[in-house]
Amino acid sequence: MSLQEIADRLEIEQLLVRYCHAIDERDWAAYRAVYTADAVIDDVTAGPGNSVDDMVTFLSRALERVVVIQHAISTSRVDIDGDTARAKTVCHCPVVLDRGNGEARMFFQGLWYEDQLVRTADGWRIARRAETGYFHDMPSDFSFE
Predict the structure, then answer these.
(1) Which SUPFAM superfamilies does the UniProt record give (predicted)?
(2) What domains lie within the chain, and their CATH numbers?
(3) How far is 47 from 54, CA to CA, in rounded Å?
(4) Contact 120, 85 (CB under 8 A)
(5) Which residue did the predictor score with more confidence, 141 or 110?
(6) In whole angstroms, what is the distance from residue 107 CA to residue 78 CA?
């Protein structure tokens, strides 16, 4: 690998990590910063074709009953072609729900992020994200919608 490819791979890896921390910490400015301004997000629970602003609105509401959420990514396959790249990344995500009356319940979800990335003046950003292969053991009476 060239030094440029090594640098690109490290930057993309950190971009994906920043995404996870942004959601887990509900830091919507940091969340916005991982995407291009015109990014399109196909989210399993929010549906296809969302903008970044759509997702901030959805996630802010969806996470109201979530006490703790922890996105853990691994096994990224990244293919770089000049100023564009594709990445497919595994995500496992435990979620602790507030069930009311001091009761909490944990469930797990897993999925793949399939990303199209672009190099911008501010570094690599996600231009399109699709969540695929979603599985979970979420309580039947809970929904992120």
Answers:
(1) NTF2-like
(2) 3-136 (3.10.450.50)
(3) 10
(4) no
(5) 110
(6) 29
Two tokens, residue 7: 């640098």
Q: Which of 96, 29, 35, 28 is nearest to 59 (CA)?
A: 28
Residue 49 amino acid letter: G
pLDDT the model gives residue 144: 75
* Tokens of residue 145, six digits: 């919608």
Residue-wise DSSP of 46-67: TEEEE-HHHHHHHHHHHTTTEE
> Mean per-residue pLDDT for 19-42?
98
pTM of the entire structure? 0.93
Residue 72, Cβ neighbours under 10 Å: how many?
12
Q: Which two tokens stand for residue 29?
A: 């400015």
Question: What residues are paired with 102 via a beta bridge?
Answer: none
Q: Strands 123-136 and 35-43, how do they pair?
A: parallel
| pLDDT value of position 100 | 83
